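Action item from last meeting closed. Structure (74 res):
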């Protein structure tokens, strides 16, 4: 017999309102529910961040862009 626990209020809120989740591990893949991929230009992987995953914006031309956010309003 397995034991199940309920979700906390914070977990339920996160599940209900999460739009996109990017791990910032030098991939452009959205791990969230909408699978909105991004464009990353002139970035490299940093060694900081909460779980050692971050982007370094090395140049003035560096950017991270998600264009599909406009679809969320529809």
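Sequence:
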């Amino acid at each position: 017999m397995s034991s199940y626990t309920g979700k906390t209020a914070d977990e339920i809120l996160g599940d209900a309102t999460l739009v996109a989740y990017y791990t910032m591990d030098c991939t452009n893949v959205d791990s969230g529910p909408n699978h909105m991929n991004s464009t990353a230009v002139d970035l490299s992987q940093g060694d900081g961040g909460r779980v050692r995953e971050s982007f370094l914006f090395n140049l003035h031309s560096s950017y991270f862009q998600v264009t599909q956010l406009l679809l969320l309003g529809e």
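Note appended to the action item: The first helix runs from residue 9 to 17.
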